[in-house]
């Protein structure tokens, strides 16, 4: 007899990663850091390899102590995970499994949807309004967890701090989880973050080392929440899910504050140049405060194929729940030149959207 999957897993489609570009500078599909990690990270990794025969610290105490100081919270209000994705799955297992209810934007961050269905829970997806979270409608949904990805992926739009505070106050959700993976690319990260709301209860904030710190390949994320939530998640978390190498790399990244500042400056500058370049070529761009842009086009598949011929990989919007768009990560300087070349008027690229063509954008 062949074993069968649990019936609720029929709702799941596997996560679709971004395609790799044939040219490294043309990799614009996965929101990776164009400047890589801090130079200090490689040395830290080499040092950690000497202890690779030892199990890692199960709670990454040194790392979470430094993060606690950074965010002005207690160390036992932080949990380190194998990327923020592991932490999302832990939240689903602890608070949604077997009949729980979550609410999120539509389209959602894919892992929010996948983790909810994986534990046989219900998911209410509230369509975006003007490319951003419709917090007013979401606040009317009685749920166990409300997910707010801020900035939103895949649009790059943000909810204002006042909007988040009002949502937390009005939402009947037992826990509001605010995913701040792209917070460092907003106009004012210190004002934008929801971490101060954790003290009031009912709020958890996700962060990652994958974006601003450039450690996507090492998988380090963390959750800031009330102590009882952290304690609950520790009960079901695999004890050694974050390797000693990853912990050492994250510490080194954290101790080099100049590098994320350089990544932020590069990202904001190149992002602005990309907006000008794309709009001059006739492609409307959704205003973004992340390290990517969502671009509208009538011919999504053709756009993806056309730029690939110039060594550029981008993410088709249909794979992210927004057909008729493409998502383009902020690249290196060389990557920007590749994009500029692909968008030259003499190249056979695509027609802009109908709105742009009619002068309505």
Automatic annotation (TrEMBL):
| Transmembrane residue ranges | none
**Which SUPFAM superfamilies does the entry mention?**
PLP-dependent transferases
- Matches recorded under CDD domains: AAT_like (cd00609)
**Stored PANTHER family:** HISTIDINOL-PHOSPHATE AMINOTRANSFERASE, HISTIDINOL-PHOSPHATE AMINOTRANSFERASE 2
Residue ranges of every copy of the Aminotransferase class I/classII large domain listed in the record: 28-337
The name of this protein is: Aminotransferase class I/II-fold pyridoxal phosphate-dependent enzyme
Enumerate the Pfam families for this protein. Aminotran_1_2
Q: Which UniProt keywords apply?
A: Aminotransferase, Pyridoxal phosphate, Transferase
What ranges does the record give for the region Disordered, renumbered to this chain?
A: 1-34
Keyword Transferase listed = yes
Q: Kindly list the GO molecular function terms attached to this UniProt entry.
A: pyridoxal phosphate binding; transaminase activity
InterPro entries documented for this protein: Aminotransferase_I/II_large (IPR004839), HistidinolP_aminotransfase (IPR050106), PyrdxlP-dep_Trfase (IPR015424), PyrdxlP-dep_Trfase_major (IPR015421), PyrdxlP-dep_Trfase_small (IPR015422)
Name its species: Arthrobacter terrae
């Amino acid at each position: 007899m062949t074993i069968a999957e649990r019936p609720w897993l029929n709702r799941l489609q596997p996560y679709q990663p971004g395609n790799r570009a044939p040219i490294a500078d043309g990799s614009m599909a996965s929101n990776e850091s164009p400047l890589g990690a801090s130079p200090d990270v490689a040395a830290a990794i080499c040092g950690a390899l000497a202890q690779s025969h030892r199990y890692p610290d199960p709670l990454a105490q040194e790392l979470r102590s430094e993060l606690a100081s950074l965010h002005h919270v207690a160390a036992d209000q932080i949990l380190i995970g194998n990327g923020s994705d592991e932490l999302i799955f832990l939240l689903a297992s602890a608070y949604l499994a077997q009949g729980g209810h979550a609410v999120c934007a539509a389209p959602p961050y894919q892992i929010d949807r996948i983790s909810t269905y994986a534990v046989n829970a219900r998911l209410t997806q509230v369509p975006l309004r003007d490319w951003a979270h419709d917090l007013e409608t979401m606040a009317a949904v009685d749920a166990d967890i409300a997910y707010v990805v801020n900035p939103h992926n895949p649009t790059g739009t943000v909810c204002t701090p006042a909007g988040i505070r009002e949502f937390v106050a009005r939402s009947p959700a037992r826990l509001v989880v605010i995913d701040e993976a792209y917070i460092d690319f907003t106009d004012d990260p210190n004002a934008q973050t929801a971490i101060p709301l954790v003290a009031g209860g009912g709020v958890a904030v996700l962060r990652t080392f994958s974006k601003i710190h450039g450690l996507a390949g090492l998988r380090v994320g963390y959750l800031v929440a009330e102590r009882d939530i952290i304690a609950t998640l520790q009960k079901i978390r695999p004890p050694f899910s974050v390797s000693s190498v990853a912990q050492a790399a994250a510490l080194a990244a954290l101790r080099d504050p100049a590098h994320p500042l350089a990544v932020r400056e590069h990202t904001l500058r190149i992002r602005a140049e990309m907006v000008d370049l794309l709009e001059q070529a006739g492609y409307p761009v959704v205003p973004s405060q992340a390290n990517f842009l969502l671009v509208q086009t009538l011919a999504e598949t053709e756009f993806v194929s056309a730029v690939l011929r110039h060594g550029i990989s981008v993410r088709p919007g249909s794979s992210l729940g927004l057909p008729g768009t493409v998502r383009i990560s902020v690249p290196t300087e060389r990557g920007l030149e590749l994009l500029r070349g692909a968008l030259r008027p003499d190249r056979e690229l695509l027609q802009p959207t109908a709105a742009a063509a009619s002068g309505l954008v």
